[in-house]
Amino acid sequence: MIIGAAILLDLIIGDPRWIPHPVVQMGKLISFLENKWNHGAHRVKKGMALTVTVVVIVFLVTFAIQFIAYKLHPVLAIILNIYLISTTIAIKGLASAAKEVLSPLGKGNIVEARKKLSMIVGRDTESLPEKEIVRGTVETVAENTVDGITAPLFWAIIGGAPLALVYRAINTLDSMVGHKDERYGQFGWASAKLDDLANWLPARITALSIWISAFFIKKSKQKHAWNITLRDARKHPSPNSGWSEAMVAGLLGVQLGGTNYYRGIKSERATMGDPNRELIQFDITKSIQYMHGGWIVFLLIVGTVFYVVI
Q: Is the per-residue pLDDT at 310 higher than 80?
């Protein structure tokens, strides 16, 4: 009931800017500690300390808030739990972001579509043709289905708001310091590895869930999608992100990945799926359908298994 209510709350209000968001506070804590510790020697150990510190603080603060709320009134604790879990998922936000790219694209306003895409991807978008705008949007929806929806739901089912927010803290750590560059290569190692671990099982269950949901979505190519996923998922630089992306590519019958540019620098990304046809605008709509179908089936699978085990 609590998980369902949290999902409903997210679908209704999303992440309104006027409500304080826990992730913002996590980001401030991470930034503060990173500036204090990310220098000098022993950066791997300092990065491990950062990861442990942030995770422990988030868990203890969330648990304490829940405990105090329960002491005041059990109903208050339930309401708070629902709200906190809702802040860790982004069903409405992810779907809305994709639709905001699709809307101007459908009207032939490619300049506006590029601008909207630039708000959800890190690649250069200024000169992208339509098919590349579609590719960027589909890839974003497919990848973020895991870390934006199913993974936080997985941890919420297991441990309620405390574990859901711990997952969000891990994911935020990875996005802020888990980069393989000179500044974060050593310092962010622990954060990146913990994020890989936290997403490992949810990513694979998500791929299965999307595949099952595709039986209820017209013109999906389920026959070869699972083989394509097994073939291509491991090509992705992330051990987890490739699973949902390869599955969506297989179901659509298109190829994702390829050449991207970041601040003018060319980057070749592993391709996923077969280039049976060019990407079209409707593929964005289909990716949103797979996202919704995926989280619904995921919830049924994980919820049922958890219920049976417990």
A: no
Give the span between the Cα atoms of 126 and 115, in whole angstroms: 8
Pairing verdict, β 256-262 and 265-272 = antiparallel
Q: Residue 222: its pLDDT value, please?
A: 84
Q: Identify the helix (H) or strand (E) that includes residue 113.
A: helix 110-118
Asked if residue 7 lies in contact with residue 92, where contact means CB atoms within 8 angstroms, the answer is no
Please report which confidence band the pLDDT of residue 68 belongs to, taking 50, 70 and 90 as the band edges. very high
The candidate with the shortest Cα–Cα distance to 47, out of 26, 33, 60, is 33
Q: Which of 139, 134, 138, 171 is nearest to 152 (CA)?
A: 171
Give the Cα separation of 249 and 241 in Å (integer): 13
Segments making up each domain of the chain, as ranges: 2-309
Q: Please name which of 181, 166, 177 lies closest in space to residue 46, comparing C-alpha atoms.
A: 177
User: Rounded to an integer, what distance in angstroms lies between the CA atom of residue 187 and that of residue 178?
Assistant: 8
Q: Are 149 and 142 in contact (CB under 8 A)?
A: no
Beta bridge partners of 260: 267
Nearest in space to 241 (alpha carbons), one of 162, 164, 163, 175:
175
Give the integer Cα–Cα distance in Å for 95 and 14.
10
Element (H, E) at 13: helix 2-13
- Please name every residue paired with 268 in a beta bridge, in sequence order, or none if there are none: 259
Q: Which tokens is 96 given?
A: 């809305």
Q: What's the whole-number mean pLDDT along residues 270-288?
A: 96
Encode burial over 55-88: b for 16+ CB neighbours within 10 A, e otherwise. beebbeebbebbeebeeeeeeebbebbbbbbbbb
User: Around Cβ 301, how many Cβ atoms within 10 Å?
Assistant: 15
- pTM for the full predicted model: 0.94
